[in-house]
Amino acid sequence: MLGLEHDFRIVDTRATLDPDESSVATHGRDISPERLEREMLQAGIVRAVASPGQRAAGRSYLRANNAVARLSIDRPFVAFARLNGPRDSGTGPVSAVRNLRAERDDHHTRPDDVEQYSYDDRFHGFTLAPHVDGLPNEDVLARLEDADLPLFVHAGREFPPEAVETELLGYDLPIVLGSFGGYPLDADLMNETLDLLDEYDRLYVDTSAVRYREVLERGVLEHPDRVLFGSGAPDVHPNVGVMEVLTLDVSEDLMARVLAKNPARLVPALAEGADV
């Protein structure tokens, strides 16, 4: 695919780096760090947040997180640690009953893990996919609040905005909902998430897999400082996500905010000249 031509500095808040055979097998893809970096450069992306792909059930993310941090050295990647937990992310009565008995296992994230990641200068934030990895216990979430680093959350039909509000938004930390909280392609949930931005000052959204121009433009126009560019690479080529923003009917100033200024304000390691 040809490289895009544009005059914007672009950083990406949503990329997955599969660092080992387990992650590759889970996702059924094998994209090397070199290929991911090359595709980013083709899209004009100069730096990207990277976190591990889904691990097999019962496996800890500790080794995968450390591998992503190691692979990010001397590459334009900013490592985020992926978390998991024993609690069911569903909103129904069955989930509520399960959570009464939810006990942390050896492979689940513990408060000490969060503290270690927080003070390790290789990591700049956290990633959470509740629908596949479960929700951490409250003591882990409290430690995340203490760390005050960005938490990027995979939200959508299986972990909708109402669940995000119930489980996470009571904690005082910056939270970014992937795909406007409406993955896959649920415009109603995306609009519900945008409504939540009016109520929660530390809530943000990323643009990955938001294929509706009207929804994207609403987000950018109504909340110009809280929409962050995210490509969703390598599931899609980053060129796709970049073009979706570049073709919006908004000013160049607003595009520049989404593509670089907003992400760099939330994740300083994405800023121009940052030492990572």
Automatic annotation (TrEMBL):
<protein>
    <submittedName>
        <fullName>Amidohydrolase 2</fullName>
    </submittedName>
</protein>
<dbReference type="InterPro" id="IPR032466">
    <property type="entry name" value="Metal_Hydrolase"/>
</dbReference>
<dbReference type="GO" id="GO:0016787">
    <property type="term" value="F:hydrolase activity"/>
</dbReference>
<dbReference type="Pfam" id="PF04909">
    <property type="entry name" value="Amidohydro_2"/>
</dbReference>
<keyword id="KW-0378">Hydrolase</keyword>
<dbReference type="InterPro" id="IPR006680">
    <property type="entry name" value="Amidohydro-rel"/>
</dbReference>
<feature type="domain" description="Amidohydrolase-related">
    <location>
        <begin position="120"/>
        <end position="267"/>
    </location>
</feature>
